């Protein structure tokens, strides 16, 4: 079959890692007889430089007309001083909003061969952990009213955290659905001891849980959760949380899996179309050196095959290819611990060779 994929490479290491993922997709396509048809959608600072807009209408159109979107990363020091609405990062927020991808799935699991790369002790890791963070993506403080006002202490800035019952309910349902497919355990993370929006969050999650009696639900405050993922990550299956808490918590979880360069994500909504992207940013400090870890983006492409196209077997081939390559001891320089240090292109090649041999 043919699948149309919008390619939003973005800035920094974005183009390097997205190209790696496209190479892997093409190999899968060849083996399994699929054709992936790519159309570029300029985003971020790259698009700003070309068109004066980090998310041009034409790019939104390309993404809307495609079956799915593969996204690299946006932003970098070159564009840091632009006004808020022109910043490169508005591209990803705007795209999520435009495609109504309100749920962000961020799997955080430890590859068996990377136990030594986790900063956690062997006694904590045991036989590994497998967490799925389900993060609300189009609401909360990132999208609430923001601005400046005069106070008795002078100029002040504000950002409002706001969630409607509808927004909480639809993300909670995704969380419970995911838990049903996994270990049937859901931890909802909030700060309901302090925040009104969190108290509503907790109430709605409790309501939704009545439709999922098989899933065991517990609630945890964000500060405690930040500690618990380090103390005992094995206690978690699905973590359901808000936009800002999920952003921070999933970066933290990435580190206990060995590197931020390993973690994929899927942003999904009502239909099968999604935005698939690594959780990391554009890594300006290593851009152009050819050393970026392409695995997070390659695994994001694998998630796309599964969620958007229903290609479970093809998705698994990529995951297995990555796992086996890591088992052979190959690592990019961001992964802690011992191994054979290789660059972006070599890692991509090793993964492709492994897939071809399977
Ligand atoms: P970052 O994730 O880009 O980098 C953090 C650290 O991790 C850096 O030392 C970087 O070299 C390293 N790193 C990240 N990905 C890597 C990979 N694949 N391989 C090897 N090392 C990797 O976060 P930072 O530095 O806070 O942000 C840089 C820029 O990216 C900023 O402009 C930020 O706004 C933007 N950003 C964009 C995101 C997106 O497009 N979705 C998400 C997060 C940040
Ligand atoms: Mg982040």
TrEMBL record:
<dbReference type="InterPro" id="IPR019818">
    <property type="entry name" value="IsoCit/isopropylmalate_DH_CS"/>
</dbReference>
<keyword id="KW-0560">Oxidoreductase</keyword>
<dbReference type="InterPro" id="IPR004429">
    <property type="entry name" value="Isopropylmalate_DH"/>
</dbReference>
<keyword id="KW-0028">Amino-acid biosynthesis</keyword>
<dbReference type="GO" id="GO:0009098">
    <property type="term" value="P:L-leucine biosynthetic process"/>
</dbReference>
<feature type="binding site">
    <location>
        <position position="223"/>
    </location>
    <ligand>
        <name>Mg(2+)</name>
    </ligand>
</feature>
<feature type="binding site">
    <location>
        <position position="135"/>
    </location>
    <ligand>
        <name>substrate</name>
    </ligand>
</feature>
<feature type="binding site">
    <location>
        <position position="106"/>
    </location>
    <ligand>
        <name>substrate</name>
    </ligand>
</feature>
<feature type="binding site">
    <location>
        <begin position="281"/>
        <end position="293"/>
    </location>
    <ligand>
        <name>NAD(+)</name>
    </ligand>
</feature>
<dbReference type="GO" id="GO:0051287">
    <property type="term" value="F:NAD binding"/>
</dbReference>
<feature type="site" description="Important for catalysis">
    <location>
        <position position="191"/>
    </location>
</feature>
<comment type="function">
    <text>Catalyzes the oxidation of 3-carboxy-2-hydroxy-4-methylpentanoate (3-isopropylmalate) to 3-carboxy-4-methyl-2-oxopentanoate. The product decarboxylates to 4-methyl-2 oxopentanoate.</text>
</comment>
<feature type="site" description="Important for catalysis">
    <location>
        <position position="142"/>
    </location>
</feature>
<keyword id="KW-0464">Manganese</keyword>
<keyword id="KW-0460">Magnesium</keyword>
<dbReference type="GO" id="GO:0000287">
    <property type="term" value="F:magnesium ion binding"/>
</dbReference>
<comment type="subunit">
    <text>Homodimer.</text>
</comment>
<dbReference type="GO" id="GO:0003862">
    <property type="term" value="F:3-isopropylmalate dehydrogenase activity"/>
</dbReference>
<protein>
    <recommendedName>
        <fullName>3-isopropylmalate dehydrogenase</fullName>
        <ecNumber>1.1.1.85</ecNumber>
    </recommendedName>
</protein>
<keyword id="KW-0100">Branched-chain amino acid biosynthesis</keyword>
<feature type="binding site">
    <location>
        <position position="247"/>
    </location>
    <ligand>
        <name>Mg(2+)</name>
    </ligand>
</feature>
<keyword id="KW-0479">Metal-binding</keyword>
<keyword id="KW-0432">Leucine biosynthesis</keyword>
<keyword id="KW-0963">Cytoplasm</keyword>
<comment type="pathway">
    <text>Amino-acid biosynthesis; L-leucine biosynthesis; L-leucine from 3-methyl-2-oxobutanoate: step 3/4.</text>
</comment>
<dbReference type="GO" id="GO:0005829">
    <property type="term" value="C:cytosol"/>
</dbReference>
<comment type="similarity">
    <text>Belongs to the isocitrate and isopropylmalate dehydrogenases family. LeuB type 1 subfamily.</text>
</comment>
<feature type="binding site">
    <location>
        <position position="96"/>
    </location>
    <ligand>
        <name>substrate</name>
    </ligand>
</feature>
<dbReference type="InterPro" id="IPR024084">
    <property type="entry name" value="IsoPropMal-DH-like_dom"/>
</dbReference>
<dbReference type="Pfam" id="PF00180">
    <property type="entry name" value="Iso_dh"/>
</dbReference>
<feature type="domain" description="Isopropylmalate dehydrogenase-like">
    <location>
        <begin position="4"/>
        <end position="351"/>
    </location>
</feature>
<feature type="binding site">
    <location>
        <position position="223"/>
    </location>
    <ligand>
        <name>substrate</name>
    </ligand>
</feature>
<keyword id="KW-0520">NAD</keyword>
<feature type="binding site">
    <location>
        <position position="251"/>
    </location>
    <ligand>
        <name>Mg(2+)</name>
    </ligand>
</feature>
């Amino acid at each position: 079959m043919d699948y149309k994929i919008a390619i939003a490479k973005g800035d920094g290491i974005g183009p390097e890692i997205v190209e790696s993922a496209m190479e892997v997709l093409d190999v899968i396509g060849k083996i399994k007889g699929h054709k992936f048809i790519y159309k570029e959608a300029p985003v971020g600072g790259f698009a700003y430089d070309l068109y004066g807009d980090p998310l041009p209408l034409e790019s939104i159109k390309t993404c809307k007309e495609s079956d799915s979107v593969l996204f690299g990363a946006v932003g970098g020091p070159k564009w840091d001083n632009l006004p808020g609405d022109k910043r490169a990062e508005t591209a990803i927020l705007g795209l999520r909003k435009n495609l109504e991808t309100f749920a962000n799935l961020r799997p955080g699991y430890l590859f068996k061969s990377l136990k030594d790369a986790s900063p956690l002790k062997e006694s904590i890791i045991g036989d590994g952990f497998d967490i799925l963070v389900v993060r609300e993506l189009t609401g909360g403080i990132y999208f609430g009213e923001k601005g400046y006002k005069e106070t008795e202490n002078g100029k002040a800035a504000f950002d409002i955290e706001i969630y409607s019952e509808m927004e909480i309910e639809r993300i909670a349902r995704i969380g419970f659905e995911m838990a049903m497919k996994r270990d049937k355990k859901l931890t909802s993370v909030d700060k309901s001891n302090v925040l009104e929006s969190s108290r509503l969050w907790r109430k709605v999650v409790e309501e939704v849980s009545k439709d999922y009696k098989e899933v065991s639900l517990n609630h945890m405050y964000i500060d405690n959760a930040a500690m618990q993922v380090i103390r005992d990550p094995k206690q978690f299956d699905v973590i359901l949380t808000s936009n800002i808490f999920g952003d921070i918590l999933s970066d933290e979880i990435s580190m206990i899996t060995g590197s931020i360069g390993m973690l994929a994500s899927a942003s999904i909504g009502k239909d099968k179309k999604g935005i698939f992207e690594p959780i990391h940013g554009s890594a300006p400090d290593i851009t152009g050196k050819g050393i970026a870890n392409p695995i997070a983006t390659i695994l994001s492409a694998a998630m796309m095959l599964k969620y958007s196209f229903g290609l479970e077997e093809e998705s698994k081939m990529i995951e297995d290819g990555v796992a086996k390559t890591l088992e052979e001891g190959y690592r990019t320089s961001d992964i802690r611990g011992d191994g054979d240090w290789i660059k972006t292109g070599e890692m991509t090649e090793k993964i492709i060779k492994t897939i071809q041999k399977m």
